Here is the input.
Amino acid sequence: MITDKTKIRIKDIAQLAGVSEGTVDRVLHNRGEVSAKSKEAVEKVLQEINYSPNLLARSLASKKHYRFVYMIPEYQPNDYWESMDKGFEQAAQDFLQYNVHLEKVSFNQYDVKSFKTAAGQILLSAPDAVLLAPVFTDETLIFNQELKKMEIPLSFLDSMIEQADFSTYYGQNSFQSGYLAAKLLLNSLPTASKVLTITTNITGTETHQTKVRYAGFKQFIAENNLNTIELINIELSSLDESTNIRLLHDTFTKHENIRAAITFNSRVYRFAYYLEALKIKDIRMIGYDLLQENIQYLKKDIISYLLAQKPEKQAYFTVRDMCSRLVLKQKVNKINYMPIDIIMKENIDNYMNFKE
Here is the structure.
């Protein structure tokens, strides 16, 4: 029995159908004489393994090798980007049969110069496709224009820059996720409550994802006339933990009625850690993504909600669709929004244990 249907070979089909490899080849390419019985046996196997003879034949016949470069931020173990990287690694194995080879290029998401350097290296190497998690808006648009001149297709994942020229996008509707976060966080807050909006200091600019999520957050406030809620922005250092704790201590000392807080990235656990260290309780808190540290604070009821977005599937589907476009010459859907999963203490275990 074949357990990995993505690595099916002509030899495997022949064994299952009880015919020769030459017979399978003739059926796939629709050439030469094949008995009705043998043809039926081969087509039955192809149907059982859910494989398209035309696509398989086209792939096997292709002698061209494709090099896809995926560009994601550097990460630490158990980080959000590690989950996305695992999705790329799985895709690299599964689509190798199409002569597709993946290469990773990383950059520092807190340093725009790092992104520019990485983008320049990719342009010099001239890959067949670029798969990018965009962090810096202006620099991504410049990079996009250079790729366009070289006729190199670009796909986005994690966040989408609408004015760019791209092949596909897999990820949340970032604006809608910010809107939903506001709805969850601000519902039933007492009058005149104060809410912390927490960002991380990044050299040179705000991340694209943060800007779009924050815009959705503000839109909910405007539409629901929540004028009595005061937003207090706190910009944390990406490195200096002691400075961050002092900053939050001073903020809570200065402001009364802080009832809720949101981070627009995956590192909400850092804020949860600071509150725990300062012994500050009863703050409704929301953030993004199922990092191990985030889950721990969710289970301790310090984080109230997490919005999850399946980064490993974003990566896998992005590779799959670029493969479909370049190798198999198929049309692909451009914008593919992932579900916005609302995770709480009460459903986290079932969510994590469920196997698709």
